[in-house]
Specification:
Elements: H1 2-24, E1 28-36, E2 42-48, E3 54-61, E4 67-73, E5 79-85, E6 88-94, E7 99-105, E8 113-116, H2 119-137, H3 142-153, H4 160-166, E9 169-170, E10 173-174, H5 184-197, H6 202-221, E11 224-227, E12 233-236, E13 240-242, E14 248-250, E15 261-266, H7 273-285, E16 289-294, H8 299-306, E17 312-315, H9 323-327, E18 335-339, E19 345-349, H10 352-358
Parallel strand pairs: 1-7, 15-16, 16-17
Antiparallel strand pairs: 1-4, 2-3, 2-5, 5-6, 7-8, 9-10, 11-12, 13-14, 15-18, 18-19
Helix pairs in contact: 2-4, 5-6
């Protein structure tokens, strides 16, 4: 009996020690490595905020052999950090408790290093090396940016890497510039992913505001202009897609004819579609043009659902990867956009209640 009590007490003490150690210990990450050609050198870890500004948070010195190690508290949310040695930098992401291993050499550290410790860290190093090579060639970066979109942005689901890629600079110029009308689609893609998968991330609001501001500036400055039947030039974000009979229908056909036009993004095969269509039907009955874009994956189900709808209904074959949805900064469905009688985009509603107020 006495031995059993002693064993129980020992087990309880061990458990208590484990709990205390775990509770008092602070979760953290470590960045360590070896930099050839940098003996006894200052190593600084800096943290980026979501606007790309850098602040030093800790430092150490390398050994005579160039080795170093720094332990830091884990960030509350994924963050980008950079390691600075003598004015040269290595960028790396941290999610929670990784150990990031850096191996490189100076001079030329920015292009002569490897990262290990997480999948995101490896991809970040891969991107930075590719960017350095593309920038060294000079010339137009359009093809490179399309490759970057396919590899790091398209399926990113709001990853920290996609934000890093989007806000990267080449020299003193942004790789993706929201002031460049051809780059807006990349901002809307990342903003849409963050809004869907990372709504509480502080970067989400920044991305959404940047994308919306860029779209407004583009539309007011030059936009996508079409000459309509009334020979009146209007600014609009046009869409051209096939209807259920295979005929191409353009949004611009409906604009500027003296009637308001409602653009709807929805999925006709979704269980909520009848409720949405009933609200849209009221708008159509009140004399509004309706251009409904369906993002259905099931084209046969869509065709059947669209058969009796008395307004223009088109199918976007890109479905949930729709470039048309990206142009309108669509992050969820249904969503509604209102053009006035002159063919100018004036308002947006993200649910049925907002739609009812918008079309009063």
């Amino acid at each position: 009996m006495e031995k059993r009590i002693i064993r129980c007490l020992c087990a309880a003490c061990a458990l208590l020690a484990f709990i205390v150690a775990g509770g008092c210990g602070e979760r953290g990450f470590k960045v360590k490595g070896e930099i050839e050609g940098a003996p006894d050198s200052s190593v600084v870890v800096e943290k980026s905020d979501f606007r790309g500004r850098w602040q030093p948070i800790d430092s150490t010195r390398t050994s005579p052999g160039g080795k170093f190690s720094i332990s830091l508290p884990s960030p509350a949310a994924p963050e980008v950090y950079r390691l600075g040695i003598g004015g040269e930098y290595v960028y790396f992401p941290v999610d929670s408790t990784e150990t990031i291993n850096v191996k490189g050499r100076k001079p030329g550290l920015a292009t002569n290093y490897t990262l290990e410790g997480s999948e995101q860290a490896g991809k970040m190093a891969e991107f930075d090396h590719a960017l350095s090579a593309a920038a060294a060639k000079g010339g137009d970066m359009s093809d490179f940016k399309r490759q970057v979109y396919d590899k790091y942005i398209r399926d990113s689901r709001g990853s920290l890497l996609s934000f890093y890629v989007l806000t990267k600079t080449v020299g003193d110029r942004p790789l993706f510039d929201p002031a460049d009308h051809t780059d807006i689609k990349y901002y809307t893609a990342v903003a849409t992913a963050f809004k869907e998968f990372k709504p509480a991330d502080p970067r989400t609001q920044y991305l959404e505001q940047t994308a919306i501001r860029a779209l407004r500036e583009r539309n007011s400055a030059q936009g996508k202009k079409q000459v309509l039947q009334a020979d009146k030039e209007l600014t609009a974000i046009d869409i051209t897609l096939p209807d259920r009979n295979g005929k191409s229908r353009s949004l611009s056909e409906l604009l500027g004819n003296g009637r308001r036009t409602l653009v709807v993004f929805s999925v006709l095969t979704h269980p909520d579609a009848p409720l949405i269509n009933k609200a849209v039907a009221r708008c159509h009955a009140a004399g509004m043009n309706v251009y409904q874009v369906s993002l259905d994956n099931d084209q046969y189900g869509w065709r059947e659902a669209a058969e009796n709808l008395p307004w223009v209904n088109v199918l976007d074959p890109e479905a949930d990867r729709s470039s048309n949805a990206l142009k309108y900064n669509v992050s969820k469905i249904p969503v509604f956009f209102l053009y006035n009688e002159r063919g100018e985009l004036i308002d947006r509603a993200d649910d049925l209640d907002a739609l009812a107020k918008m079309v009063r």
